[in-house]
Design goal:
Elements lengths: L2 E5 L12 E10 L5 E9 L4 E8 L15 E6 L6 E10 L4 E3 L23 E4 H4 L10 E4 L6 E2 L17 E3 L13 E3 L1 E8 L13 E5 L4 E7 L3 E4 L14 E5 L2
Parallel strand pairs: 11-12
Antiparallel strand pairs: 1-17, 2-3, 2-15, 2-16, 3-4, 4-13, 5-9, 5-14, 6-13, 7-12, 8-9, 8-10, 14-15
């Protein structure tokens, strides 16, 4: 995935206060029907990275159970920059909702709608501290619902026992809802991940190092392909940071 970078100029009056920015989108797909999409946006002068991650799968491969169809993590390589717990969060997408969330204790099953804080169901990893996952092919940074090499972001326990419980809490596509049971917690079909970073990113050149998503717990991995940079609205709580965006875009090298 070779990318070249370009600083895209725009006035705060046009873009910042309209809560828009430039995003670099990476798509992931396989002929078996599994697919995903991730849009990366730099916030706060490059000190934060936002990822809108969506399960776009068109079908469920034969032999895949409830947990296998869930998109549980994404990995990339920030080139020596670490993800921080401080300033990081995970929210459901603007039209997303949870399924089968069943916290222990009185009250039983509860579900949550759009733009809801689900940070307690996710965590992060930096190769320098937690080691890299073999399924992520050496990519040093990741966000996941699974426990291996993953440090929880922290937050209210919304689904099952305290701590990470992946694949529970992973993303399910619209197609994946068909035949989906009542025993597996999931989110349909998007989360918005905001990551605090140990140092600022100037652009999206880190995507040259690759990106990879995981389904289930080591059930299936897909490599990403970058697409054209687009002007996008900032999802959810990120609109409040519009005036502080670093306006950076990417385009494919010819």
């Amino acid at each position: 995935m070779k990318l070249s970078t370009a600083i895209l100029a725009a006035t705060a009056g046009v873009l910042g206060f309209c809560a828009t920015s430039f995003g670099s989108t990476v798509t992931f797909s396989n002929p078996n029907g599994l697919s995903a999409e991730a849009t990366f946006v730099l916030l706060n002068g490059g000190n934060s990275l936002q990822i809108a991650l969506r399960n776009t799968s068109s079908s469920v491969p034969a032999g895949f159970g409830d947990s296998d169809r869930l998109l549980t993590g994404i990995a990339f390589d920030l080139g020596g920059v670490d993800i921080l717990a401080t300033g990081s969060s995970v929210f459901t997408g603007a039209s997303s909702y949870t399924l089968n969330f069943n916290p222990s204790g009185p009250g039983g099953a509860q579900n949550y709608g759009a733009n809801y804080d689900v940070s307690g169901e996710y965590g992060f990893g930096n190769g320098s501290a937690t080691g890299t996952l073999s399924g992520f092919s050496g990519l040093t940074n990741h966000v996941s619902t699974n426990t291996s090499h993953t440090t929880p972001f922290g937050g209210p326990n919304l689904d099952g026992p305290s701590g990470l419980g992946g694949p529970a809490g992973g993303l399910i596509s619209t197609a994946g809802l068909t035949g989906f049971g009542n025993g597996q917690g999931a989110i349909h079909d998007e989360i918005v991940i905001t990551l605090g970073l140990s140092s600022a990113l100037a652009d999206f050149s880190f995507l040259e190092n690759g990106a990879r998503v995981e389904f289930g717990s080591d059930r299936f991995f897909l490599n990403g392909t970058p697409t054209a940079t687009t002007v996008i609205p900032l999802p959810g709580p990120a609109a409040l940071a519009g005036a502080g965006l670093l306006l950076v875009g990417t385009r494919r090298r010819r």
